[in-house]
Amino acid sequence: MNIDDGRVVSNFIAQAIRGESLTVQLPGTQTRSFCYVSDMVDGLIRLMEGDNTGPINIGNPGEFTMVELAETVKELINPNVKIISVENTPDDPRQRKPDITKAKELLGWEPKVKLRDGVPLMEEDFRQRLAVPKKV
């Protein structure tokens, strides 16, 4: 992921590494589902190598509110940062959660990497690219 691509996970991780406040858009109860890249690639390879066509959702149905995500990033990366609320855009969806029933049935696929396991992997990559070592 690009560090400053505007996506919530990369925003929170970069903010935490830089020691900046994590900016949660109001109301903070909107949900997103996060799929780690290795799971996404595995699902896409299974889809490409198979005989199934048509829409098949590849994603993670695990749902987190933006506040839960911010609290998780704070806990795992930088417990000293603050979480602040900022105004939201009017077209922000309230919920995102893929239905992966077809992926399970047709591809034998479901995500394996949990959010709490993926965040530290992203932190390590982001720290290298930002040249900000982890304090011991």
Order of helices and strands: HEEHEHEHH
Helix/strand class: mainly alpha
The dominant shape is globular
- The tally of beta strands, per DSSP, is 4
Largest sheet: 2 strands, parallel
Distance between the termini: 25 Å
- Helical content stands at 40-55%
Beta-strand content estimate: 5-15%
Low-confidence stretches: none
* Lateral arrangement of strands in the main beta sheet: 1-4
| Gyration radius, in Å | 16 Å
Describe this structure in words.
This protein is mostly helical. Helix content is 43%, strand content 10%. The chain has a two-stranded parallel sheet. It has a two-stranded antiparallel sheet with strand order 2-3. The protein is globular. The two termini are 25 Å apart. The model has no long low-confidence stretch (mean pLDDT 93).
In short:
Helix content is 43%, strand content 10%.
Output the keywords.
136 residues; 10% strand; two-stranded antiparallel sheet
